[in-house]
Specification:
Number of helices of chain B: 12
Strand content of chain B: under 5%
Strand content of chain A: under 5%
Number of strands of chain A: 0
Shape of chain B: globular
Order of helices and strands of chain B: HHHHHHHHHHHH
Number of helices of chain A: 1
Oligomer: heterodimer
Distance between the termini of chain B: 50 Å
Order of helices and strands of chain A: H
């Protein structure tokens, strides 16, 4: 392999700063109300 | 070759990944061979890869009892010889580079220098204000900065980031759990390293099963696998089943 010149600081810095943490926590789904049915109601012709 | 040469960047990324794989293996198999440099690799690429991992490249020496050879010391010294001249002074990125470089140099002194030369705290050459700024901005920006600073946990020296980790351990725990819930194991692996330090306590979080979960989950990158291996070693060193 041919000798490579010194690696530019920009490349090293970019890799140091990865993996960048995703800062946007997606909101968690709201829990269902306590009296919510476990299953949706059956269709009328079931 | 341009400064943003994608092939060069890919070569450094691959070399850093290979180094992370070797370091993780050495942490999980103490007593096995470990060397910072790969003789088959072009030296400038090796030096850049060492800089990318920073103190983590020395983790097998610091946490698993491996003994550095003269070439390991030489590579880490030369890899961190000059400051990275890319970040604006006083910026968040400058703080990340400053602290990581200081931790790598501190670890080298610890492993290779006279014992009396080892200070208890990392010297901060620039401003630590970005840490306080991130706290003021909220938990998420702060946790993102602590993710970038997680390699400091490989080095047994205090720093402003360690101080904040102790003070805000619950926020670290919350951020780690949120990362797991959103299927972001790389971020979670970085954050559990802080929580695995012996003086960082988040009683609401059962840390050992979380770290075990991350170890059993397919790591997205070699560096994330190394993060988990370091967290495991830190927990092991603390002799805890938190």
């Amino acid at each position: 392999m041919a000798r490579t010149a010194a690696v530019p600081d920009e490349i090293v810095s970019a890799l140091v700063l990865e993996p960048e943490s995703p800062v946007a926590d997606p909101p968690l789904a709201a829990p269902p109300p306590p009296d919510a049915p476990l299953l949706p109601p059956a269709p009328a012709d079931a | 070759m341009t400064r943003a040469d994608p092939a060069l960047r890919a070569a450094v990324e691959r070399a850093a990944g290979d180094l992370a794989v070797r370091a993780a293996r050495a942490l999980r198999d103490p007593g096995g061979p470990y060397a910072v440099g790969d003789p088959a690799e072009d030296e400038p690429i090796t030096l850049a890869a060492v800089r990318v991992l920073g103190p983590d490249a020395l983790a097998p020496f610091l946490l698993a009892g491996a003994r550095p050879a003269a070439r390991d010391v030489d590579l880490v010294e030369r890899g961190h010889a000059d400051p990275l001249a890319v970040a604006a002074p006083g910026s968040r990125d400058a703080l990340v580079h400053d602290l990581r470089d200081a931790a790598a140099r501190h670890a080298l002194t610890l492993l290779h220098g006279p014992p009396r030369a080892v200070p208890a705290r990392l010297p901060v050459t620039g401003s630590a204000a970005p840490l306080e700024d991130a706290r003021r901005q909220g938990r998420r920006p702060w946790a993102a900065l602590m993710v970038l600073l997680a390699p400091l946990t490989a080095c047994p020296a205090a720093s402003p980031a360690h101080d904040q980790a102790r003070r805000h351990a619950t926020d670290l725990g919350r951020a780690a759990v949120r990362a797991v819930l959103r299927r972001d194991p790389a971020t979670a692996a970085r954050l559990v390293r802080w929580l695995a330090l012996p003086d960082v306590s988040c009683p609401q979080l059962d840390l050992a099963p979380l770290v075990r979960h991350l170890a059993l989950t397919t790591a997205p990158t070699a560096r994330a696998a190394l993060d988990v291996a370091i967290a495991e070693r830190l927990l092991h060193a603390a002799g805890t089943a938190r």
